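As a warm-up, study this chain.
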Amino acid sequence: MARKAIHKAIQAAGGIVVRGRARPRVAVVQRSKDDRWVLPRGKLKRDENPRAGARREAVEETGHRMRVHEFLGAIAYTVRGQPKMVQFWRMQAAAQPSRDLTKDIAAVKWLTLAAAVRRLSFSLEKLFLRSVGRRALKRSKRSLRRKTRRKTRAQAATKKSQRRTTRKSRTKSQARKSRAGKSRSRKAAKARTGR
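Now compare it with the structure written out below.
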C-alpha cells in the first residue's frame, strides 16, 4: 500500500506597510528572483511567532523600522503543490530607512493604495490589498489624529503649568516688592520723625 505524502502548510507572514500619515503610502517590493511585485512578506523561521516574523520580514524587505498594529487577515495558495498561508498585519513604517534591503529584494516603492494594487503581480494579493487597504489607511489616519490630540493636550497642560508657575512667581515677586515697599515706608517715616 502506497503512503500518501501529507504536506504541512508553509507558514509565512507580512504586512500592509504604511508610511506617512497625512498622505499615506503603501509599500510594495520587487523580488530579485523573478522581478515580481509583492507585499512585504516571507516564510517564518522554525517556531517563530507569526507577528514577530511579519515585522522581521517587513523590516528586511523595506529597510524601515516598523510598528506592528492589528491583524488584517490571511491569504492561502499552493506553491508547487504545497499549501502556503500568509498572515498580514497593519504596520506603520518610520519616515526614513534605517538599513539596506535584503538581497532578495530588488526595489521598494511607496505608492498610493490604488497604484499599489495596480503594481502587485499576483491577483490574489491585489484582491486582498483592495479589500483591507482602505481600512489600514483609515486606521493609520485615525492614529495620527489620536496622536495629535494627545500632543495638543500635553502642550495645553504644559502651558497651563507654565502659567501657574509664572503666576506664582509673580505673586511671590509682588509680595517681596510689597514687603520691601512697606519696609522703605517705615524707614522713611522713622527718618521724618527722627526715631
